[in-house]
Design brief:
Shape: globular
Strand order of the largest sheet: 1-2
Distance between the termini: 22 Å
Order of helices and strands: HHHHHEHHEHHHHHHHHHHHHHH
Helix content: 55-70%
Largest sheet: 2 strands, antiparallel
Number of strands: 2
Strand content: under 5%
Radius of gyration: 23 Å
Structural class: mainly alpha
Length: about 450
């Protein structure tokens, strides 16, 4: 035991637990105020990313080896992605670069302006790939700091996320009834007239509300402290507000995220209260959360005050186009193997492949299917990285199942983390939530909880 304690104390910077928490709290606040959009030209990124790098540097200096070993899976994920992006930025000889798929058009343009023969990197948009590399500063800072927080501080972070979700839902209500006017929107390019909360995109807002709802249910069902009853009442009230926020958002992706979250509610309840929790009570809880949503949905439908609801019921043009371009995306995913078009370069790649008959007024800056976009931009290596992470998460989930439904904070938060990652994974089928800094941070909070120190199995109790 003495050897382990010595290893833990070998840190370059003896940052106190209190200071670590304060730094993480500031990072979380900055993240949701400045990191709610996915565009590379958002001006707030110029402040967010340097602050994230600074916070990450401080966190790394305070990190000990044992903590690093414990959370090596999420750390390795970030390192692998960063290395792949760096490789895509390495200049190649002209002859090697022109042999890559879809480089012929760019080569012709180079020849026309007298740039033929110059070295070029794998990515067709070096600036966008460099931007993608810089974006990893946010999840790295979140991971480095959050993995050093105590059990009590982590619970406070979860409470803060629920608070942010409720505040975003209330802001979304005002955004709907404002008709898109006024200064209620944080970003210039956004869904005006819809509920987006602290985000630029209504789908990303709804995905976060679904996650915050799961966290609220988890907090409600924990048996902790003398004020557990009041905590439960407040947490369930927050969950109801968040569900109403999802319904009033009424994007198709948002409803899908909400539905997935509702599916996982019984699992979160079971994980938070142990095996002894009667199944009947779990479903009563789900019903009590769903009934207000049905009522609010009917209210908005009858009052015809929700533009988003009208769009859901009558306007499917943008969604139809997304389905129409699916064959093009699948062909791009095949053509750009094995090296990929370059992280962040989807927009440029799609413009070269876009069929004339699918030209529309709005352009596609993302594939709206992040799993396919990952294959297009990152090639075989990115697919292997994602597959490896999914396998590791699945193994961790099976171990979690083997541990049973224990009334233990670590185990219950691991169940919650798995549900959060499932919501983000399904939401990525119709959108790109993990390209938004705030949701990147939430994802790595979930990964940290999932890979927290091993929970004991039943046989070890």
């Amino acid at each position: 035991m003495q050897g382990r304690s010595t290893r833990r104390s070998r840190r370059f910077l003896p940052l106190s637990a209190e200071h670590t928490f304060i730094l993480f709290a500031v990072l979380l606040a900055v993240l949701f105020l400045m990191g709610g959009g996915s565009r590379s030209d958002i001006q707030s990124l110029a402040a967010l990313r340097p602050f994230a790098l600074l916070a990450a540097a401080v966190g790394v200096l305070a990190l000990d080896r044992e903590t690093l070993r414990t959370y090596r899976a999420p750390f390795l994920l970030l390192v692998a992605l960063a290395l792949l992006m760096v490789v895509q930025l390495i200049p190649l000889p002209w002859s090697s670069w022109t042999s890559l798929p879809w480089r012929g058009t760019i080569a012709q343009l180079d020849e026309a302006v007298g740039l033929a023969g110059n070295s070029r990197p794998i990515t067709i948009s070096p600036m966008r790939t460099a931007n993608s590399l810089a974006s990893l500063a946010v999840p790295f800072a979140v991971l480095v700091l959050y993995c050093q927080l105590s059990e009590r501080r982590r619970r406070q972070v979860l409470v803060a996320l629920v608070g942010i979700g409720v505040a975003g839902a209330v802001l979304g209500f005002f955004q709907i009834f404002s008709g898109g006017s006024g200064g209620l929107y944080f970003y210039a390019v956004t869904h005006r007239g819809d509920a987006v909360g602290f985000f630029a995109n209504r789908n990303h807002h709804a995905a976060f509300l679904a996650i915050a709802m799961l966290i609220a249910v988890h907090l409600a069902m924990e048996r902790r402290g003398p004020d557990a009853k009041m905590t439960r009442i407040l947490a369930f009230a927050a969950a109801a507000v968040l569900l109403v926020g999802i319904v009033t958002n009424v994007s198709r992706g948002g409803l899908l995220a909400g539905a997935v979250a509702l599916v996982f509610v019984p699992l979160v309840i079971s994980g938070s209260r142990g095996e002894g929790r009667p199944a009947r009570r779990r479903w009563i809880t789900v019903g009590s959360l769903a009934l207000p949503v049905v009522g609010i949905f009917a209210l908005f439908a009858l009052s015809q005050r929700s533009p988003a609801l009208s769009r859901l019921l009558t306007d499917g043009t943008s969604e139809e186009i997304r389905f129409q371009i699916m064959p093009v995306l699948l062909q791009m995913a095949r053509d750009y193997q094995p090296w990929g078009a370059g992280f962040g370069a989807f927009e440029q790649a799609y413009r070269m492949a876009e069929p004339t008959e699918l030209l529309v007024r709005n352009y596609f800056n993302q594939a709206h299917n992040d799993w396919l976009q990952l294959a297009i931009e990152g090639g075989v290596a990115a697919v292997l990285i994602a597959a490896a992470m999914i396998v590791v998460i699945a193994i961790r989930a099976f171990r979690l199942v083997g541990s049973g439904f224990r009334d233990d904070p670590r185990t219950s938060r691991a169940w919650l983390a798995f549900a959060v990652l499932a919501v983000l994974g399904v939401a990525s089928v119709l959108d790109y939530p993990l390209r938004v800094p705030a949701l990147m941070g939430v994802a790595f909070i979930a990964l940290t909880e999932l890979f927290a120190p091993a929970f004991p199995s039943k046989s070890q109790e």
